[in-house]
Amino acid sequence: MNKARWQLDSCVWEVTLACPFHCAYCGSCAGKARENELSTAECADVARQLSALGCRRVSLIGGEVFLRPDWTGIVQALVSRGIRVCIITNGYRMTPGVLSSLRELRVESVAVSVDGPRDLHDALRQEGSFDRALETVGALARAGIPVSVISALRRDNALRLPEFYETVKTLPVFAWQIQACSPMGAAGKNGIDVSFDAGAVLAFVSGVRESAPFAVGVADNIGYYTPEEGGVRGRSGVCFTGCSAGLTTLGIDSVGNVRGCESMYDKHFIEGNLRARSLADIWNDPDAFAYNRRFDRAMLEGKCASCPHGEICAGGCRSYNYFAGGRLYESPLCARKEKL
Description:
The chain is an alpha/beta fold.
């Protein structure tokens, strides 16, 4: 295999599991930091290794990133190497000091998780968290920091998207990303109903995107190739071209485990650990990320096997497929299923 074929472009890096919440649907079961999380020096070395592989963008996640005391040093280690940094937060502990640091570090953007109207958001997170999240959105915008909103859909909040949109469209954000809540981690343990009508969500996004005062798009775990494709992924003309885990993207957790995607939160998908092997060694391993690097159309299962878009779509999001359907190569959330 030609190692140069797999060019790392972006990384999602979980820097801690510490979090003020214990959300009922948290995919990583965050709350308490792991005892053996990567040290400041180890994180600086991870930044160096990401840069050496040509990574251009890193999204820092938790837990809650800002609960890690050395978060500014991690960001500095990345941006000093020309890597763009986005931080995803629940917005609950935004302070003037954090805002000042974000501005000084020239973080590319901050995404605040807001999952629906106040009653739904607070019910599975924490009372008061909705108002705090919206306050954080406003504070970030006033500080001149680009801010977006991310919403994870379940059965209950998906039905109230039009209502929630009336709130989101008043916020000073540049984008709103809508993604499917995966039944992994706490969501699976708590039996959260994550089913919803993907076709209805695509129709909703298609209906509001032209008039919305910001970019509106669905994530890679919702789709695929309905008439709305090309207009529902945040930018006009952008289409889903298959799961990118281990092809152009990877995930790193707070103890140094490497996966193709940080949403593939299962030991089955760990390709190696940075305390034992270098990132380059893991990334360039000819046997790593085989579920995508060795994908062939013949691997498609169920209705995906006969879909005319199977060669391009490749069966959708590997993570969602695995946790929601138990099979990597058939999408349980494809809006085309009823039409095949």
